[in-house]
């Protein structure tokens, strides 16, 4: 009798806590909804969550509902929606619904995976209405201004969110980033950055190599300069402490190219990335985030990465002039708390 009473009271307390804080008290097996079935991510994420026999299976969550979406004027989206929709429905038993609102009502958490950054702002507006945590796939948006607006809306609504490239958790990148206790003196990252319409030319795919660069260098980039040719761009950022991080964005390499690498130059020596990775480590972080409500990457960290790419775009238009990250973020509407620190002044040079 006492045991039953204790179980009843425990269940009652958990129910009350769930009503008071629905984002932090969830079922062990989370119901996940996907917005946007035009990226390989929707298939790869669902495979890892819904197939217990898969070697990369991640327990604790299952994709149960999705909204197809798609961008008719972007072949990289339009040509893939039907195939991925059929796969999720027929192979993994995902219910395909006709609106974002329906998906949000049927799940505990949401992954916005639309490959095109342009619809993300409006998709986020709809998702925020349900007050459930969400992961926003890259690119956050098709402009820095819209990326800032998304984070401001989420903060105002008090809804946890984050966005990141899977390369942030590649074992090879982590090995380089943690090679020494002291910050990297400089680092060089390279990778594919095919140019697509409707996006700043690094946002769509260059984001992967840029995020690897920031994973190794950390935050605190102050300004960038860019040199561009038809086939490649070289973007050099100046970090606090006069440290340099350089991106080689190779425009001639296609989407899906495995040619990524980052090299770190430190006090003790040089460390090169030895291996790649896949979506599994990032997806583990996403599920952990859904379970705890604690994002692994802050708005400031992510927006500095997009400010780096936007500043590179502006430097390109200005024929290689240095562009300040603080200024591009301020013009995009970012609050002071999300801006990189003011560059320190060396007294010996004043």
UniProtKB/TrEMBL annotation:
Signal peptide: none annotated. Pfam families: GFO_IDH_MocA (PF01408). It comes from the Bacteria. Residues 81-161 form the Gfo/Idh/MocA-like oxidoreductase N-terminal domain. GO terms for molecular function: nucleotide binding. InterPro entries: Gfo/Idh/MocA-like_OxRdtase_N (IPR000683), NAD(P)-bd_dom_sf (IPR036291). This is Predicted dehydrogenase.
